[in-house]
Amino acid sequence: MSKTMRYMWLYACLFPTFFFVGLFLLYPSIEAFRMSFLDWNMSNYLNPTFAGLDNYVELLQDPIFRNSFIILLAFLLWNIIILQGASILGAYLINYLGNTGLAGFFKVSFTIPMVLPGMVTTMFWLFFYEPGNGMLNHTLGLLGLENWQRIWLGDSQLTAMLSIMMKGFPWVSGLGFLIYLAGFQNIDESLREAARIDGASAWKIFWTVDLQLILPQIRLTTVLVLIGGTQQFSDQLIMTKGGPGYDTMVPGLYMFNNAFTYGKLGTGSAIGVILFVITLGLTLLNMKFMREKR
C-alpha cells in the first residue's frame, strides 16, 4: 500500500476545509471575473448579456474612477510611510524598555485594539469629528478656538482626507507592532554592543543594525499594507461616503457603490478585477525589490 493510500483518511479529514475554501473564496473570485464581461444590472438582473470589454472601457473613461486612484495613492503612501514608521518606532522603543511593567503596559495598550471590531474604532472617530457635539469641536470651543471649528469630514477635500488619515492616532498598528517587536527581540544583543564599542550613536545603531535586520518583517508588513490599503473602503464609506462630492472616493468604495447602490453588477465586478491585478502587481514588485536588496 502506498504512503498516500495509507494516510488517505487524513486527506479525507481535510476535504471539508478545501471544499468550503473553494466554495466561498475561489468560486466567487472566478465568478467575479466572469461577471466583469457581462452587462448586468438591475434592469436585466435575470438575463445578463455579454458585453466584452465594455465595462473596462467605460471605467477607463470615467473621471471619477481615474481620480479615485490618485486618492488611493495618497492613502497608500500615508499607510506605508506614517503607519509603518509609527509601528517600527513604537516597537523599537518598547523593546529597549525590556521586561519592565511599563513595557508590558504599552504592549497591552497597542494590542487591545486588535480584538475590537474595526467598526467600533471607526464609529468612535466619526463621533470625534461630528460637527455639532463632536469631541474635537467641543474641545476647541472650550479652549476658545471657535474659529478652528470645522465640518471636518465635509468641509473640503484636504480636510476630509486628513481627518480620515488622522484616524487611529498614534497610528501604531497592533499586528505590525507585534511583528516588528518580535524582529527586534530576535536581534543578537552582541551586534548592538559591538557597534557601541566602535563608537556608533544610538541613531546609527538603529539605522545600520536594527533596521537592516528586520527587513524581512518590513517586506511582510508592506505587502499586507498594500493588499489591505488597495482594498480599503470601510472608513470612507462610514465617515464620508466618498465625499465631499467624490473627494475621498477610493476604488473599493466605487466598486461597492456600483454593485450595491447603482445596481451595476458587471461594472462593480470589473473594478474588483482591476484591483486584484493592481494588488498582485504591487505585491510581486515589492517582493522582487526586497529580494534584490537582501
TrEMBL record:
Report the locations given in the UniProt record: Cell membrane
Q: How does it sit in the membrane?
A: Multi-pass membrane protein
Q: Which InterPro entries match?
A: MetI-like, MetI-like_sf, UgpAE/MalFG_permease
Keywords of this entry: Cell membrane, Membrane, Transmembrane, Transmembrane helix, Transport
UniProt family annotation? Belongs to the binding-protein-dependent transport system permease family.
The UniProt entry, under PANTHER family, shows: BLL4140 PROTEIN
From the Swiss-Prot or TrEMBL record, give the protein name: Raffinose/stachyose/melibiose transport system permease protein
